[in-house]
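User: Hi! I'm working on a homework problem where we have to compare a predicted structure to a textbook description. Could you give me the structure for the chain below?
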Amino acid sequence: MTEMTLDPRQLGTGGLFAAAEPDLATHEAAYGKRPSGWTRQALLAELEASGLTGRGGAGFPAWRKLGAVGAGRPVVIANGAEGEPVSRKDAALLRQAPHLVLDGLVTAGEALGASALFLYATRDSLTSVALALDERRDRPRVKLVEAPEAFISGEASAVVNALETGMALPRDKATRIAKSGYQDRPTLLHNVETLAHLALVARYGAQWFRGAGTPEDPGTRLYSLSGDVPAEWVVEAPGGATLRDVLRLGGAEPSTLAAVLVGGFHGAWVPAEGFDLPLTPRGLARYGATPGAGVLLALARGRCGLETSGGIARYLAESSAQQCGPCMFGLPAMATVLERIAAGERTPWLASEAERLAGLVTGRGACRHPDGSAKFVRSSLAVFRDEVKAHLSGGCVAHRGRVR
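Assistant: Happy to help. Predicted C-alpha cells:
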C-alpha cells in the first residue's frame, strides 16, 4: 500500500465531493493517487475497523460482504442502477466523482484477485464513467453495462441477470451471489457510493473514516432529497445526523413538513415528531425505517399522506417483474385497497384488508419487492392512522374537510 497523501477534509470540503471537477487531474489533486497493493486480509481488517456499511439499501457491513466472497475467479460489480424514481445520489456521484467510484471498484477487485470488473448504471451515468476510464493511467478493464430505468433493475439478482442475459429481472435463487453469482462465479456487488467510501478508507484508513459520524454510524452518507422541498438536492451528511439536520442541509424547512418517507418506496414514513431522531436503524426503529439507499421524500403539511401513499403503492404494483403470484396479484390488490381508502370509500374493513394483503405477500415473492411494498403500505396505515379513520368516514385530516 502506498503512503497517504492528502486529507480532503483538511481542504475544507466534504469527503465524496472533495474534487470540484470529474477529471483525473482534479481528482488526484484532491485525493492523491490510488494506493495499490491491498491484500484481501488487509482490506478486510481496515473495512471492519472503519464500520463502513453498504449504502445501497440493506446496510450490510462492507467487510462481511467482501469476506463472504468465495475463491475461484471472483467478480466485482459496482451497482449504480438507482431504480428508485426519486433517487439522485448515485447519478450525482458518477457524474461528479467517477474516479472515486472506479478507485473503490479497482481496489476491491485487486484485493480479491478479481477476474472481471463491471460497472452497471443508466446510460446518462455511464457517459461520465466512460470519459473517466479513458483518462486512467492504470487502464482498469472495467466493463460498462447499461441498466434500464426500472425500479427493480438494481436488485442484486437482477443485476447479475442483466450482465449475463441483458434482462434486468430478479431470479428466484436461494444461493447467495457471494458464492455463486455472475456465471456461477463468486461475486461482490456493492452500490457505487459504498465503493467510493471504500476508496477513501483505503486511502486514509479506518480512523480517518470514523472522524465523521457517530460510533454507531461512522463516516458520511449521501441523501437524495425530493418531494415538497424548495429544490431537489443530493446532500452529504455525517452518519447519525437527524432528519431535521439533513432537511436543513438540503434547504428545506422541517416545520413545513408533516412527514418524510425515509429509505425510498420500500421504506417507511417518519412523522414530524420523529424529525429529531438520528437517521439510523436504531434511531428510527419505532417507525420501522432505516436510511436504506438514502432516499428522502418530503410531504408538506396540508397534503394528504394517503393520496401520496396510494400513488406510490400503485407505482410499486406496476413496477414488479410479474414473475410470481404476490407481484402479479397481491401488489395490485393491495394498491387498490389503499387507493379506495384514499378516495374516501366508507367501507370499515378496508384498513384491515390492506393489512391482511400485506401479510399474504410478505416472504412469498421471488425477490424482496413484495416485502418492501408491504412494508411501505403498513407504514402508511400506521403513520397516517388519523387520516385513515377520517377517510373511512368520508373526511380528510390534511384537507380539514371532505375527501377531494
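For your comparison, note the following. The chain has a mean pLDDT of 91. The chain is about 40% helix and 15% strand. Good luck with the assignment!
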